[in-house]
Amino acid sequence: MSRTPVASERGAEVGRRIGVGLMYGLWRPRVLGAWKMPATGPVILAVNHSHNIDGPMVMGVAPRPTHFLIKKEAFVGPLDAFLTGIGQLKVDRATADRTAITEALGVLAAGGVLGIFPEGTRGEGDFASLRAGLAYFAVRSGAPIVPVAVLGSAERPGRLVKALPPLRSRVDVVFGDPFEAGDGSGRRTRRALDEATERIQKQLTGHLENARRLTGR
């Protein structure tokens, strides 16, 4: 049976409320710059990815319900129905997943918020290696990108679970200024996407550096 291309905005709001309870119950989020996120219209959140809690954390503290593109491997057992029910989007990273692309563009066309980990997988969280997907969605939809830096404390001892910050430790979530990825020409060629990816990487890296200075991380 094929997946529906329509992600639930109501489900994403339920996910946001669940995220609020979990994140503030288990850690001590400090949210900076959330007011910079546009209150209406399509938005892409570009989030660095170093902890397993990055997605749930941003989902919980963002001012608006967010639909994240999440690797299909996470949709196992009961999590499949749960993640789909709270408006999250399953993506096969090994191929050009046209269903996921259609769903993501549908979120933006409806004026919603799409969350993306532009590095493609969890790593150092420094935006050092970006995939072209973020540029494609930004150029295709015309939606502004809001960079988001999640800065935790996974490098410190005291973790009960690998790749998670210690419980009750502070996790900083810093939202940056919205920016346009395209050059205003409307071009969607491979060269245009490559140029957009370069612009995006510069903006995201700059935001991460500013966030680290701001938080002392």
Q: Give the full name of the CATH homologous superfamily.
A: Glycerol-3-phosphate (1)-acyltransferase
Q: Order of strands across the biggest sheet? A: 1-7-6-2-5-3-4
SSE ordering: HEEHEHEHEHEEH
CATH class: Alpha Beta
Low-confidence stretches: 1-5, 122-129
- Mean pLDDT figure: 85
Can you give a write-up of this model?
- This protein has 217 residues and is α/β, with parallel strands linked by helices.
- It has one domain (9-215): Glycerol-3-phosphate (1)-acyltransferase (3-Layer(aba) Sandwich), CATH 3.40.1130.10.
- Helices cover 37% and strands 17% of the residues.
- It has 6 helices and 7 strands.
- It has helices at 9-26, 54-61, 78-85, 98-109, 133-141, 190-215, and strands at 28-32, 43-47, 66-71, 89-91, 113-116, 145-151, 170-175.
- It has a 7-stranded mixed beta sheet, sandwiched between helices.
- Strand 3, helix 3 and strand 4 form a beta-alpha-beta unit.
- Helix 1 (9-26) packs across helix 2 (54-61) and helix 5 (133-141) crosses helix 6 (190-215).
- The longest helix has 26 residues, at 190-215.
- The radius of gyration is 16 Å and the shape is globular.
